[in-house]
Design a protein that fits this description.
The protein is an all-alpha fold. It is built from 17 helices and no strands. It has helices at 15-26, 30-43, 50-61, 64-69, 74-93, 100-122, 131-143, 147-158, 165-177, 181-194, 207-219, 226-236, 248-266, 270-274, 278-296, 300-313, 315-329. Helix 15 (278-296) packs antiparallel against helix 16 (300-313). 32% of the residues are buried.
Length: 331
């Protein structure tokens, strides 16, 4: 007891047992964790966290035989990641994602998966290249909050793969946690430009991205997939202010993408457009070209043509933006 007669942790006779259970889970000793949890539940079935610990240990204990059977390397790592997704859904349903047991299991599963991906990478196992292994390893490190390792892994992958949305997104998120905001914004902007559908929004903690999501929600715009509108609102809010110059090949590629999207767009009726993500995608490509013609290779005629097309695509969204931009340019 303390001086006010309140119960302290040192007075809790079951605290040591509870801590030991979490340690067992974090080490992957699920059978022993079940045994210890049973003992604790017999003493106090209402002890905080005991139910979550039991469910967590039981879930993974039921998969131990399959984990051992798959051996070492990529198959085991992939199995762990797939089962983690199932466990994550289960934990959401049981409202135990904030529990110590959940966090202990996460630490074990992702360290185990990372270890297996590293083994597969070293042996160049079951793949003609190492990209998938590197990106999965980077995701493991991100989930474990090992941001320096995630950056090292994915910067290495970038030497061969520069245009993958998932890689750039994980790298951007990792740089945010490493307090390198310019690189975070650079990689995030490029990730959402390349393919928003590859972005796992559940991994996002980067404040600039959550601010863009809030701006989309505050706009009152009815969006089909918020990911598709993030690059658009990132531009409009100027949160995505960090840019790298485009090369000739990238500009030509953007023009081809716009051309193809326009061909598809003109053949669609309003219902078709609403049922797809073509509108934010075509706007996104135009905004990259607009930025190019306004800041890198200045061409007023091309900029004006793009402005008019953007107004015709979404007048409500761009009328105020262009009026505001014109006002700024006067000063």
């Amino acid at each position: 007891m303390d001086n006010n007669g309140q119960l302290t942790f040192s007075d809790d006779p079951l605290l040591h047992d509870s801590t030991e259970i979490y340690q067992l889970i974090s080490e992957g000793n699920f059978q022993e964790a079940i045994k210890k949890t049973d003992q604790l539940m017999n003493i106090n079935p209402d002890y905080p966290g005991v139910v979550e610990a039991y469910r967590t240990a039981k879930f993974w204990a039921n998969r131990e035989k399959e984990i051992k059977k798959t051996g070492e390397g990529k198959k085991t790592a992939d199995f762990l990641m797939e089962e983690w997704n199932a466990f994550d859904d289960y934990a959401t349903y049981k409202e135990m994602k904030a529990s110590s047991a959940y966090k202990s299991a996460m630490r074990y599963i992702f360290f185990k998966a990372a270890e297996q991906y590293k083994l597969a990478f070293q042996h160049n196992e079951e793949t003609n290249d190492k990209f998938d292994l590197l990106i999965n390893l980077g995701e493991c490190f991100l989930r474990l909050k090992e941001h320096k390792l995630a950056i090292e892994t994915l910067e290495y992958a970038m030497t061969s793969y520069k245009s993958n949305a998932k890689l750039l997104f994980i790298l951007g998120e990792s740089y945010y946690h490493a307090d390198d905001i310019p690189k975070c914004l650079l990689y995030m902007r490029e990730a959402f430009q390349i393919d928003p559908s590859q972005i796992d929004m559940s991994l996002i903690e980067a404040k600039p991205i959550t601010e863009i999501v809030n701006a989309i929600q505050d706009s009152g715009k009815n969006v089909r997939d918020v990911r598709e509108w993030i690059p658009v609102f990132g531009f409009l809010t100027d949160i995505f202010y960090v840019r790298r110059n485009l090369n000739k090949h990238q500009v030509e590629s953007l023009k081809r993408e716009v051309f193809n999207l326009e061909n598809s767009f003109t053949r669609m009726n309003s219902d078709d457009i609403e049922a797809t993500n073509i509108l934010p995608r075509i706007i996104n490509k135009y905004l990259w070209l607009l930025d190019y013609y306004e800041h890198q290779n200045i061409n007023i005629e091309n900029s004006d043509q793009i402005n008019k097309r953007l107004l015709s695509l979404d007048k409500d969204l761009f009328q105020e933006f262009f009026n505001r931009s014109s006002s700024y340019k006067k000063y």
